[in-house]
Amino acid sequence: MDGISVYKARLRMGEKLADKLKKLRPDHDIDVVIPIPDTSRTSALELANTLGIKFREGFVKNRYIGRTFIMPGQSMRRKSVRQKLNAIELEFKGKNVLLVDDSIVRGTTCKQIIQMARDAGAKKVYFASAAPAIRYPNVYGIDMPAASELIAAGKTDIEVEEQIGADWLIYQDLEDLIAAAEEGNPNITRYECSVFNGEYITGDVDEMYLKRLENMRNDAAKQGKKKGSHKRQTNLVADLNTEG
User: How far apart, in whole angstroms, are the C-alpha atoms of residue 92 and residue 119?
Assistant: First the structure.
């Protein structure tokens, strides 16, 4: 992408995240690194290699369940997480595990996955995000939820850690994320990082725009559209039956 290998960038993300972890907790007690499939696997592998810790596949993924963070409604997202992943007890029982994901959006997925790891017998569950905390909505085409539905919005890392139920949460630093990409193509010197820092590159996004966007994108609005669509379909069926 723009001359940058996504695969190599993800490897560098894992390496930089491992360096940060070593600085913060040089005496860590992590027994095993486990990725949350699939996109975090590359970063998790390099993180494990850099730390000199075992890398294991602890989750089996059901490939017929879509991305949970864009599903309408929390109840559907919670249900889908349990349908999407199954924990392999052998890889968790009696161990201190570091789970690695590519990012944390609403927190629905990681909270349930952390609980699944505990249910499978993990002693401690640490959680690492290969991306920085996502605190602002995307306005350039990704159906990312309203700011009020982002778990990190207005919260400290410690508060997010407590909310998802992790024994420790570590985020990638934004400068390290940029450096991981920049190394692949030094000619690119500016990146769109609005979901992390709230700085929108087009310069025309203000509080009023974001509020209007939130009213359109939040769960309540989506559920309302869904009900409206269902009602229209019901009326159409009734009209057809009447004409028949």
Answer: 9
